[in-house]
Structure formats: C-alpha cells, structure tokens
C-alpha cells in the first residue's frame, strides 16, 4: 500500500568525493557527504510503497533524506486554569526568573516564528505587532485551541492591563504557521512550515509539538497491518523522521554559514510524558533531533527552581513552564503548565541575544547557541539532576 513520503532533496548538481577512496558519491538516506550540505535544497511529498521507496532512491541521486509522513500531536499543557490566577508579581514569576526586566534588549529587529495551532491576532497582547500568518492545515488562519495564542503571548506578547506577560516585547514582525488543526497535523506539514519560516526571514523557530507514535501505529493498523508489523514499521518511520529533521536542521545551518540565509535557531519542547518521581521519559521528537534545541520546564519554589514533574529528561536547557500566565483566545489571560510554555520563553530570550549579537556584529548560530547556554542559571537547581534541566534556566542578556 502506498504512503506519503517526505523527500528532502538538493536542487543543485554537486559532485561529492569519498574521503577514503576518491569515488563519486550520491546523497541518499543511507549516506550523506559533508559536501552536499553546500547545495540548495527543496522539499516534496511523494506517494510510494516500500519497494517504490528503494527504487525512488536509486533513480534520484539528489535525494538527501526520505521519511514517511507521521501524525503530529500537540504537546498538551498539563493544566489549564482560566481565571484561577490573576496577574501579580507572585504569579508572573517567570518574567523575573529569566532576567528580562533588567535587560536592555527587547528583540527589536529579530523575527520569531511560532509553529503551532495559530493565533488570535485580535488579542490586545499583540497590538502593534505585524503578524504574518500561514495556514498549513486547510482549516484557515486563527486559533480555535488557544495553545498557539498562549505560546505567542509568552514569546513576544505586549503588556496586558499593565502586566508584562511576554519576553521579546520589542519584536516588530512575527511569523505564525498553523500546523496543528482540530485533527492534529503531520510531519510533512511541519517540514513545509519550517522551510516557509526560514525563507521568510525567521531567526528563531519555536515548536511546542511532538510526533504521535501511537497515532501512527493505529493508522497502519487501520490500513490492514497486524499490530506487530505496524509497530515495526512505525519504529522505522519514527527513526527516519528524526534523521529527516536532523538533516533539514543541518542544511539550514550550513546555508546560513554560507550566507545563503540568515542564522536560524530551531527550538522544540522536550515533552510532558514524565511523571516524577515514578518515572522519567526522554526528550521526544522532533526536539530530540540533532540541530534542534530541546527545552525542559521548571517551576519556582521559595528562592529556588525545580524540574516540573512532567518535564522529559535530557533537555538542552530549561525555562519556566509551571503557572505561566499568558494570552487566552477571545481576550484575557490564562495559566498553563507544560514544556510547551517553556519553549517560547527560550524563543524570546534567543531574540534578545540575537539583537545583542547583531549590534556587536557577532551574530551567527554558533555564537547565539554559545551565549544562550553559557548564560543559563543552574545555581538555583542544586537539588535536581543536571540531565533533567540541561544547562539550566535560560537568562536574558544584560
């Protein structure tokens, strides 16, 4: 049975020489030379079955990676408490925790992309922001879920009723890609949205979503596969998608180093599947892919921080993800918990660091990553395991 495959391919003919025997190589799913990363790339979706996939690879030498489309799911907040908490210094702890109130930078001149459920662009938190929206779901722009609006409010929202809810409040133009609709989404949609964001000048891409492995198994079973075969095929598709995201991230990074595009930092929520102290779950895809910065969630207790009970382990760094008050669809504010809420904090802080590096003529991805991680605060996490919070609590530049 034919399935949809995402194909990442070079749009230039580039000869690649093997480092060990001098033979000419072609990029494929199994072998990717360093030289091919200099080529321009594009993305397509092909309808193939297992046999066609191998034949397609043999006959298309410019293929860099190929993977079946897999369902995407929202990394759902652990709690939604509308109206249960009112904005105050006590409950807006996250703003002070990342140091933005004492920073002289605001993200001015930096473009953030939020790939999520869309945005309520009429919310007062987004007054004065030039919002460029693109719907990848077929449902139309807007946000019927509220998740994307909340994340956007954290990343760049303006003050609401005199209370600061956003990090990069000087950002003037943003990209909002709606990749999750009422029925979720899929990896081909997300890949397309990342490509769109890069082409439209995004410096930071924030994604609070994950691959739906159980959903993919169920989809294969519905097509007639036995459970054991469905799980096996799903695992292979899962692996191929991780590699696909890795290679896409590497291509974007290399194009930036060749001055073909602007530097782009890609962020992904680590996931909410852990249940401390009973068990911990590792970072979920696509955030686990090399080239994507994974974000864990922290809460505040007394003068210190703690790793949220739901936050997956192995994150690159962390940010506030408990009792986060931000924009609610239809107006007003709402409190949510999740690594979904932590990720846009990092997007906002990264925008501040990017602004600072640009003013010093030092802006590239390596410098941005180095400053972002080196400035993290881990001193208030002395009772936690380092693998659970990564570099620590992200911090704004002074």
TrEMBL record:
GO terms for molecular function: serine-type endopeptidase activity. PROSITE patterns: SUBTILASE, SUBTILASE_ASP, SUBTILASE_SER. It holds the Pfam family Peptidase_S8. One of its GO terms (biological process) is proteolysis. InterPro entries: Peptidase_S8/S53_dom (IPR000209), Peptidase_S8/S53_dom_sf (IPR036852), Peptidase_S8_Asp-AS (IPR023827), Peptidase_S8_Ser-AS (IPR023828), Peptidase_S8_subtilisin-like (IPR050131), Peptidase_S8_subtilisin-rel (IPR015500). The active site is at 116 (charge relay system), 147 (charge relay system), 340 (charge relay system). Belongs to the peptidase S8 family. Keywords: Hydrolase, Protease, Serine protease. This is Peptidase S8. It comes from Pedobacter yonginense. The keyword Transcription does not apply. Gene3D superfamilies: Peptidase S8/S53 domain. Residues 107-358 form the Peptidase S8/S53 domain.
